[in-house]
Design a protein that fits this description.
This protein is mostly helical and 159 residues long. It has 2 domains: 2-128, HUPs (Rossmann fold, 3-Layer(aba) Sandwich), CATH 3.40.50; 132-159, no CATH class. It is 49% helix and 6% strand.
Length: 159
């Protein structure tokens, strides 16, 4: 996405991440003790600047998955909402079910998680602002490791 946005000379990349996506990611990072990853979250993504990064913005940040789907349906957008075929049994799915159960029993849980997170986000970003971003040794795109996630996935697919 980043490379395509850069090639299109875009200054912003809008993503479809929503309240459900964000709270799932936050809890997953919390459960795994990975606050460095959480520092990259928020309505405007990223904790570190890099000349090859196009700023990512999440305009649906406060909307639930159901609200997004309903809006798309009412506006007759040609979109199909299907669950990822790789989702069943994953950590993300289990965290999502946990959050949905909590939200059903205690409405506002997801918004509360997001609101709490946003109060600490500036400090998290500051804490991790000096981390370095390298370039993927295979494609040259920004990466936190020797290879970017896309190249790692493509290598797995080849095998």
């Amino acid at each position: 996405m980043n490379k395509g946005a850069r090639e299109a000379k875009a200054t912003l990349l809008l993503t479809g991440h929503n309240l459900d996506d964000e709270t799932q990611s936050l809890l997953m990072n919390q459960f795994k003790g990975n606050m460095q990853l959480s520092a990259k979250l928020g309505p405007i993504s990223g904790a570190v600047s890099h000349e090859k990064f196009v700023k990512k913005v999440k305009p649906l940040y406060y909307m639930t998955e159901k609200e997004v789907a309903l809006y798309a349906f009412l506006k007759k957008f040609p979109v199909q909402f299907v669950e990822c075929p790789n989702s069943p049994g994953t950590f993300r799915q289990q965290v999502g079910e946990l959050l949905n159960n909590l939200e059903n029993s205690y409405p506002g849980t997801k918004q509360g998680i997001l609101k709490s997170f946003l109060t600490i986000l500036p400090d998290l970003k500051k804490q991790y602002e000096n981390q370095t971003i390298a370039n993927c040794e295979l494609c040259g795109e920004p990466a936190a490791q020797k290879q970017c996630k896309v190249c790692i996935l493509l290598e797995k697919e080849k095998k």
